[in-house]
Amino acid sequence: NVPVVSEEQARSEMAKKVKIGIYFVTWWALNVVFNIYNKKVLNAFPYPWLTSTLSLAVGSLMMLISWATRIAEAPKTDFDFWKALAPVAVAHTIGHVAATVSMSKVAVSFTHIIKSGEPAFSVLVSRFLLGESFPASVYLSLIPIIGGCSLAAATELNFNMTGFMGAMISNLAFVFRNIFSKKGMKGKSVGGMNYYACLSMLSLLILTPFAIAVEGPQVWAAGWEKAISQIGPNFVWWVAAQSIFYHLYNQVSYMSLNEISPLTFSVGNTMKRISVIVSSIIIFHTPVQPINALGAAIAILGTFLYSQSDEHDIILWQSSNTR
Ligand code: 3PG
């Protein structure tokens, strides 16, 4: 019977690999589509606070409808769950709006090159704020990450300080989001899809008043009219696409976390950025100098080196968890 069992095992291993492969390809594809439509919308309608709010609103609505129609089962949550989710939602909101502000000011590829430095932020926060220490290999991998990002930033043709700082703030906020959500998800029975749904809803509540204060309905109305007159009625579909795809890619990424190790996830997230950087450069005809591309390549290589050490699973968990 032994060979039969191992054959079964092999088959289930294979099935798992195929499933993970499907998750990854879906996650990257959804993310590429989000990034393209998000930038198309921002080019015509430069109000990132509203577009970030709409992404969360559409995602929340989709999940409320799914729960009401029982397409998905609503989670059973208590006060403690929402209390633990609150800091995660604050960090998610800041990271999301900062990334969107960044993309409204610079090329999508540039935002993602800077965002590929997220593991470096994770190490620095863990070291200096949480007092954790890491093996030398981890610190060494920061050299290409930070050096590559710096080179890419210094040689970026359309450098903009707000765009740069937005991506940096997003990195920092997402590190905190991952640290908080690691604590918040521990021992809870809410699965990846519903956890992300609750996170969207709470973030929406947090972001809405700020979006109104920073931009506001008057500016939005004038901008909307202008965008419709330039693009035509299709503009509404672009906004719908960026919102729906934002929710879907995040949902798939949270679902995939149930299936894979944080290490695999981290590598997947970096691969995702490569597909976004390459596809957005092609679609938006972004000018790239060879030295600029070299900086991006070094940064991404550094992230891979970083993810190669088993010894720092903790940071990988922090750096990639709940995405
Ligand atoms: C956002 O709008 O939240 C950012 O585009 C997120 O980027 P990431 O999921 O690739 O880190």
Key descriptive features of the protein:
single chain, 323 residues, mainly alpha, 13 helices, 81% helix, 0% strand, globular, binds 3-phosphoglyceric acid
Helices and strands, with pairings:
Elements (H helix, E strand, L loop, with lengths): L1 H43 L3 H21 L10 H27 L2 H8 L2 H11 L7 H19 L6 H25 L6 H23 L2 H15 L2 H24 L4 H22 L6 H17 L6 H8 L3
Helix pairs in contact: 1-10, 1-11, 2-3, 2-8, 2-10, 3-7, 3-8, 4-7, 4-11, 5-7, 5-13, 6-12, 7-13, 8-10, 11-13
The structure holds 3-phosphoglyceric acid.
Written account of the structure:
The protein is 81% helix and 0% strand. The chain has 323 residues and is mostly helical. The protein has 13 helices and no strands. The longest helix has 43 residues, at 2-44. The termini are far apart. Bound molecules: 3-phosphoglyceric acid.
Give the helix/strand class: mainly alpha
- Which range best describes the helical content: under 10%, 10-25%, 25-40%, 40-55%, 55-70% or over 70%? over 70%
Shape: globular
Reading the helices and strands in chain order gives HHHHHHHHHHHHH
